[in-house]
Amino acid sequence: SCVFLFAAAASVFFEKELINQVVMEGKSVLLSCEVSNANVPVTWKKDNKVVEEGERCVIRKKGPTHTLEIHKLLLEDAGEYCCISRGKKTELCNVVAEEGGTLSLCCELSKPGVFVQWRKNRLPIRASRKYDINQDGGLLQLHIKEVKPEDSGTYTCQAGETPVFNDITSHELSSELPPFFKKDLQSVEAEEGGSVSLSCQVSKPGLSVQWKKNKLPLRGGKKYQIRQDGCLQELLIEELKYEDSGSYTCQAGAAETTASVTVKGVGPQR
Q1: Alpha-carbon distance 124 to 156, whole Å?
Q2: Is the pLDDT of residue 19 over 80?
Q3: Beta carbons of 62 and 42 less than 8 angstroms apart
Q4: SS3 10
Q5: pTM for the full model?
Q6: DSSP string covering 111-130, please?
Q7: 138 or 241: which carries more pLDDT confidence?
Q8: More confident residue, 105 or 197
Q9: Which domains does the chain have, with CATH numbers?
Q10: Is residue 186 scored above 80 in pLDDT?
Q11: How far apart, in whole angstroms, are the C-alpha atoms of residue 233 and residue 183?
Q12: Bridge partner list, 44
């Protein structure tokens, strides 16, 4: 099976970067940069400390353009100024992949040609027989082949090599499918005094199932023999009576299959 996930996770990058400047003491300076996404917030820092807006520091935003203006410059204003855009974190929905199948994870960049690194549980993924990595313009795809339980984990697509390119999309991958029935129960008819067998197949061995008659749980005993052999589930009803007629259900998790048993023979007037 193949599950596709698409997320318009716009990678943030700087269209116009800051430039170094030399300014006389007492004058003003204007630092300006432009980001690719006008809706993404930025943080101004000086020597790794956040710059707070005040009487001498004015921070403005107009569309994708961000400016920091410093008035009445002092000697202590000299330093390294940074405009940092971390973008928004877009979370993809959790997905479930069938064991043995192939799963495709996809995300889309706002600009082609940006360096991208796929990771599993924070460790880099390289293209191999297990992982097929494709890029078509801004569309990125990671194909995970022959999915196994050990492939479960958090998968991340990180665009960019610096904090500027810090848009990340990730999600959980689980290789365990919820229980389902590969073969359903079949309705049967039987003679009074005889026996009848109801059988079905679940998706994997070792699953816990519950047998019910007319929605009421059944317990194994002399009347009802409950058997399990790998994926095969069986309910054997002995010494049939008319009142054994009804609706029988085998339930595994949220999945269930139902069939009717009709007992023929002498019984109460219908």
Answers
A1: 9
A2: no
A3: no
A4: coil
A5: 0.41
A6: STT--EEEEETTEE---SSS
A7: 241
A8: 197
A9: 1-177 (2.60.40.10), 181-264 (2.60.40.10)
A10: yes
A11: 10
A12: 83
Judge whether 197 and 248 are in contact, CB under 8 Å: no
Residue 93 near residue 107 (C-beta atoms within 8 A):
no
Q: Give the C-alpha separation, 210 to 180, whole Å.
A: 13
Burial of 32 from C-beta contacts in 10 A (0-12 / 13-18 / 19+)? middle
Helix (H) or strand (E) segment spanning residue 73: none
Amino acid letter for position 116: V
Question: Cβ(143)–Cβ(103) under 8 Å?
Answer: yes
190 close to 240: Cβ distance less than 8 angstroms: yes
Structure tokens at 220: 């194994």
Residue 242 sits at φ, ψ, to 5 deg, of: -60, -40
Q: What percent of the chain has pLDDT over 90?
A: 29
pLDDT in tens, 39-71: 777 788 887 788 888 888 999 988 888 888 888
Residues forming beta bridges with residue 236, ordered by sequence position? 197, 225
| Nearest residue to 165 (alpha-carbon basis) of 60, 15, 59 | 15
Radius of gyration of the chain measured on its C-alpha atoms: 32
